[in-house]
Amino acid sequence: MICLMRITILPILLASSLLLTQCQSAVGSDAEQILVDQFWRADGERVQQQSTAQLLKSAPDVAALYERLKVGPGYSSDVPTGQLELSRTAPDGTVFPYVVLVPEDYDSSRAYPVEFNLHGGVNRPPMAPGEPLWRQGYDGLRDSGRIVVVPAAWDEAFWWFDNQADNVPAILRSIKQTYNVDDNRVYLTGVSDGGTGSYFFAFMQPTEWAAFLPYIGNPGVLQNPAGQASYPLSFDNLAGKALYIVNGENDPLYPARAVQRYIDYMARANVEHVFKVIPNGGHNTAWMPEERPEIEAFKRTHVRDPLPERVQWATNRTDRYNRNHWLLIDELDKEGEPGRVIVRREGNQIRVNAYYVNAFTLLLNPEEIDFSLPVTIIINDDVVHDGLVAESADTLLKWAARDRDRSMLFTAELTLRVPLTPQ
Hints:
The chain is α/β, with parallel strands linked by helices and about 425 residues long. The protein has helices at about 10-25, 30-40, 45-60, 60-70, 160-180, 195-205, 255-270, 290-300, 395-405, and strands at about 1-5, 80-90, 95-100, 110-120, 145-150, 180-190, 210-215, 240-250, 275-280, 310-315, 325, 325-330, 340-345, 350-355, 355-365, 375-380, 380-385, 410-415.
């Protein structure tokens, strides 16, 4: 549930009801567009189920439905702009405040990049009402060319806790309900503990993001039990996503020399990255004005590929942190011990190498797969599937509702078991 703290807009549930009433009296393509609008803006599981059922009833043809979802809803220009102080209430009742900075001249006809900024100092109580989430204030974050998001973290919601792994993407999806977002230009920046949080999403949950920009952070914190959570870091998981990393030479908390070994791991794993060491730099961002032109150039040149031909993933659990774009690991040889899958797609042939994994799911897109022809799946040199794959409107809507991503739509999913290796 999304709550507004200082602005008032029509509740999304009421808007959905109005749309449903409108679509009952509309005909043809107008009615279908109303239903598409309702689907993309549905807030809450019940409303989402209603809009999904309506779309399936009115537009069962998968190809036509795919094209409509890809275009997306019609966005209104009559939306709040400027500094919006909002909150999200999680299913367990936890309230997560956040600030959204929307350009005053927001134009709904263009898709805007989005940048999340994760603050430092997470080991403190929740912010008091009215307390700024970004200690330096928001003026330095405003940008007429993008939407900026500042979420909040505190001592029970570090950036690398499961509740934030749910919260941050949920905030992104809620913004997409109202504002025209460029799905492939969503960036995650963080400072200090926020920089460590940026590493967390890069290692554990990268699908939504185009690139990561961790400043004066340290990925080693993610392996430290004193941080209340510890994760195995597979540097191969960073493949396909670039990082812009800045650390100070004399930072008393995370000096560049303490981060260097992780940079070396990235280099050995062929991870695209920039590592800037600020001479004599401390634990601050005084260097930002000088570095900003290169940082902005980095963002402009790094746009997400939503459907890369090659994906890989390593994980030690399947309840979460088990997905990378169109690959999900469903079953490990032993839960709690890492398994790894590498997938390469070339036309209708998909080759898979699986290690210590028993089952996984592939999500298939009609612009990458020709569903009129057989699809061949080869796992560890064994052909496990060679035939036609049926597309499904249910599958399309299921993943579109989860991802809220117009550029990453799937009309088929294949759950496959890894052949046993002969003893």
